[in-house]
Design goal:
This protein is of the alpha+beta class. Helix content is 49%, strand content 9%. The strands form three sheets. Strands 3, 4, 6, 7, 8, 10, 13 and 15 form an eight-stranded antiparallel sheet that branches. A hairpin with a 2-residue loop joins strand 1 and strand 2. Helix 9 packs parallel to helix 27. The radius of gyration is 45 Å and the shape is extended.
């Protein structure tokens, strides 16, 4: 009905027809709403006829013109109606043309399309924005934590809830508790010594956290306001570049001692990370030390001179105990070396720029920068030292001995320049000696260290390094003299003690070596926690009948030096199957075992012929393993190679073995005859590596009295039969028969070693 009224108003200027309009209007009131559009058409027909045949479009134009005229007269715009006479939704009552909802929809669509355009057209790099935000958060966290470390009272390396409690006086510090316990603590035994060393900071922190309390990370922010109220934080300082720190000479590949061979090509399998103590291998005249030069890795650091650290006591002030955290910090702070002389300070900016490149790993650019400085300022020791460091790092990166030799030469040049500071001279020569030792040039390293000791005669750590250099050359006498000098001026130096005891043990002064080895290990000084010292201390204790040997073996095992109390080899590959006794089937070398057992008489006859005609081929055992008796060995293969002309004496035996590379190619084993006379006893001992298994073929076995123990199992040989055991486990031999015992020993690779490992493992 509304539509019809609109039409009547819209067309009011035309003379309304009487009969048709009234008729239609009356008829429409009686019909359904579904017939509205039909009635509209009928209503329009009279209007068109009365207008003289004017079309509907002309009528509409005329109507719009009239509406505009009336709007001008009233001073406002007339609303525009739709075709059916209804106003748009936004125009009722003079409102806006479009609704608020329409505008919001338009804005939303614009936002969506804008976001899509930004993402797909890469207008904004969101990844970089997010990365910068994360970097800022991490950097800020590190800076804040670094400043809060000053209040670390429990020694866990960071500031947490427990430190805050101590700072606020709610809890006693760990340092104070330890100092209170020292007065009642009994003399340390090996077990207590182990427990003290084994405690990890993280474990200690976990023990001090009460049960049910939130972890330190989540609760550290809860006390932030209290901390700042109690003690204001130190002002934040931007991390500044400090090129002359002692650690500047640290190298990213320093733990990979055997990574460089004489050709400059990587041939040695990278071994697991080792401690500074483990990385310093050296030779002695005793082969019980397993000829440690085979893995001669440089010592990454020298132990400092023995110093006694006085622990400050808490001070009572105003009814509150002050914790000695602040007082201990200066004791631990290391003095920064002075590497710059007066002239170098004038070009410090250029040196720092080159050093930054080196620290960022841009070694080629750093080397070029230092070379330019050396050309421009040839009298600058710091520039030349930086060049040597860059060459050193580049040699590690490229695995190049040629570049490393250049670095060694440059270190020497830097130390010999006039006006070189004492700290620079010391750092350059120490690094030169270490790199010479790395290349196997131990005699040159010894000369460099002797020069250092002459320049710095009061530096005990340099003398300790010099003693190790003598040991690397097999000069036990020279090393012994050096360590006697050190102990004369520093009798409590643990590093000197443990090495001096090692030398006494190699000289078969068993009882005399024990106190030095024990006290050196108990000192806990850097360079003393080494598997070889646990090995030899336990061995010495066993030989004097002291059952505490196995306590030290257990301690060495818990420290990670031994695979177990029984398996005490020092040069191991992790993950290999470990058991004392093996069957031929378990080894996978059944063909080799069959050949040995089928031809045992041929092998025996050749060995007996050598014993009768050329007995000199059987050399006495020289590893200091016998308590008493005679023990001779005739070696055919050693370290994967034939031993000279040894096979000429037993050609048939050698031809049998040539078919089995698992034996002849075993670089960590031997193939030899072993003859043992009656009355011989071999001390309990272990082999050097878990990478091999040992086969014993019985050739001449007198009965009874010949037996071998491996761990807690004892067996006897049989003629023509093969025994297989892992000699990295403790074993012991008795020969109590009436005549000699003759066996044939064949070492083979551990069956679980890969072909690559067999090719790349160093020889022993």
């Amino acid at each position: 009905m509304q539509r019809f009224r609109h039409y009547e108003n819209s067309y009011s200027s035309s003379p309304p027809p009487a009969a048709p309009v009234e008729e239609i209007h009356t008829e429409q009131l009686q019909e359904e709403e579904e017939e509205e559009y039909t009635e509209e058409e009928e209503e329009m027909q009279p209007l068109i006829q009365e207008s003289g045949g004017v079309t509907e479009e002309e009528v509409l134009k005329e109507q719009e013109a009239e509406v505009q005229e009336s709007g001008r007269e009233e001073g406002k715009t007339a609303p525009v109606e739709s075709k059916n006479g209804q106003r748009p939704e936004g125009e009722r009552g003079g409102a806006a043309k479009y609704s608020l909802f329409t505008w919001l929809a338009v804005l939303a669509l614009l936002g969506v399309w804008s976001s899509m355009a930004v993402v797909y057209l890469d207008i904004v790099d969101y990844d970089s924005v997010i990365a910068k935000a994360q970097e800022f958060r991490l950097n800020f966290s590190e800076v804040l934590q670094g400043k809060l470390k000053a209040y670390d009272s429990d020694g866990d390396g960071d500031f947490d809830v427990e430190d805050a409690k101590v700072l606020l006086g709610l809890k006693t510090s760990k340092t104070e508790e330890e100092s209170a316990e020292e007065g009642t603590k009994p003399t340390e035994t090996p077990e207590s010594f182990y427990q003290k060393e084994e405690d990890h900071p993280s474990q200690a922190a976990a023990e001090t956290t009460p049960s049910g309390e939130e972890p330190p990370a989540s609760g550290s922010q809860d006390v932030e306001s209290d901390i700042q109220a109690a003690v204001p934080l130190p002002p934040l300082v931007e991390d500044e570049f400090t090129p002359d720190h002692p650690q500047d000479s640290a190298h990213p590949y320093e733990g990979e001692g055997d990574a460089i061979d004489s050709t400059g090509v990587l041939v040695e399998e990278l071994q697991p990370e080792k401690t500074a103590a483990q990385s310093g291998q050296y030779l002695t005249s005793s082969k019980v030390s397993h000829e440690a030069d085979l893995q001669s890795e440089e010592r990454t650091g020298s132990p400092p001179a023995a110093t006694t650290e006085v622990e400050p006591q808490p001070v009572e002030a105003a009814g509150r105990t002050e914790e000695p955290v602040e007082e201990k910090l200066p004791v631990k702070k290391k003095k920064k070396p002075k590497l710059l002389n007066k002239f170098d300070k004038t070009i410090k900016a250029e040196i720092d720029a080159a050093e930054k490149l080196r620290k960022k790993g841009k070694l080629e650019e750093a080397l070029q920068a230092f070379e330019r400085l050396v050309q421009q300022f040839p009298q600058s020791p710091r520039a030349r030292y930086g060049k040597a460091q860059a060459e050193d790092d580049l040699a590690e990166k490229q695995r190049s001995n040629e570049v490393l030799q250049r670095a060694i030469n440059t270190y020497k040049e830097a130390s010999e320049l006039p006006d070189a500071t004492a700290d620079l001279m010391r750092a350059a020569l120490k690094r030169r000696a270490a790199r010479q030792q790395f290349l196997g040039r131990t005699r040159g390293s010894l000369v460099t260290l002797q020069t250092l000791v002459q320049i710095f005669p009061d530096d005990v750590s340099l003398k300790n390094d010099l003693g190790v250099a003598h040991l690397l050359l097999g000069d036990n006498k020279g090393a012994k003299q050096v360590y006697e000098e050190v102990l004369g001026v520093a009798p409590d130096n643990g590093f000197a003690k443990v090495h001096y005891g090692f030398i006494l043990k190699a000289e078969n002064q068993i009882a005399e070596s024990i106190p030095f080895l024990r006290e050196g290990l108990e000192s806990g000084e850097p360079g003393t926690d080494d598997g070889r010292f646990y090995f030899h201390l336990g061995d010495a204790l066993q030989r004097v009948g002291d059952d505490s040997a196995y306590q030290w073996y257990e301690l060495g095992h818990k420290r990670g030096h031994f695979a177990s109390v029984w398996q005490r080899s020092l040069y191991n590959v992790k993950g290999l199957k470990a058991q004392p006794w093996w069957t031929p089937k378990e080894t996978g070398y059944t063909d080799l075992v069959k050949v040995l057992e089928r031809n045992w008489k041929t092998i025996r006859d050749e060995a007996l012929a050598v014993m009768d005609q050329d007995r000199g081929r059987f050399l006495p055992e020289d590893e200091n393993l016998r308590e008493k008796g005679e023990w001779g060995q005739y070696t055919l293969w050693q370290q994967g190679r034939k031993a000279g002309s040894a096979c000429q004496g037993v050609p048939k035996t050698c031809s049998l073995l040539d078919r089995f590379p698992e034996a002849t190619g075993c670089k960590r084993g031997q193939i030899k005859f072993s003859v043992m006379q009656p009355g011989t006893h071999v001390w309990p001992h272990t082999g050097p590596t878990n990478c091999r298994l040992r086969m014993h073929l019985g050739l001449v076995i007198p009965k009874p009295g010949c037996r071998i123990r491996c761990t807690n199992q004892t067996r006897e040989w049989e003629e023509g039969k093969v025994l297989i055991f892992d000699d990295s486990f403790e074993h012991e031999v008795w020969q109590e028969a009436d005549s000699y015992r003759l066996i044939f020993i064949v070492d083979v690779w551990h069956p679980e070693l890969t072909q690559h490992q067999r090719q790349t493992l160093s020889a022993i």
